Amino acid sequence: MPISVHENEIPKVPMPGHTTRKLIDEKNGAVKGYCIGVTEYTAEEFPSTGVHEDQEGFYVIAGEGVAKVGEQQFPVRPGSAWLVPKGTLHSLKKKAGSIPLKVIWSHGAV
Fold it and tell me: What is the pTM of this model?
């Protein structure tokens, strides 16, 4: 079981408006549902919303965009970080004219 990976070693999983890579999960020894990954958002409209039974944290590493958490929307850019509570609808989109919005995300048990 590898305890370390490089982003380029993990294939991108295409989804509507974005691609994602799960970097660390139970295959690397994580427990209780913990995982971390990286996603690139290319859509300039919100794709379908996500909702999870755990909390999810985000950190922007490239691009600019808008995050939607519940009914709240706010601009995000490199260095922005936020937490989505368990059971809360959320989504991201890139800003028009921006490079893809690239975020690191992680899930942790509540």
Answer: 0.93
Residue 71 CB contacts under 8 Å (≥ 6 apart), including other chains? none
Dihedrals φ, ψ of 15, to 5°?
A: -140, 165
pLDDT in tens, 22-37: 999 999 999 999 999 9
- Summarised one tens digit per residue, pLDDT across range 3-16 is 899 999 999 999 99
**What is the DSSP pairing of strand 90-94 with strand 65-69?**
antiparallel
90-94: strand order across its sheet: 72-76, 65-69, 90-94
d(CA 68, CA 105): 15
Cα–Cα distance, 89 to 28 (Å, whole number): 28
Domain architecture of the chain: domains with CATH:
7-108 (2.60.120.10)
Sign of CA dihedral 27, 35, 91, 41: negative
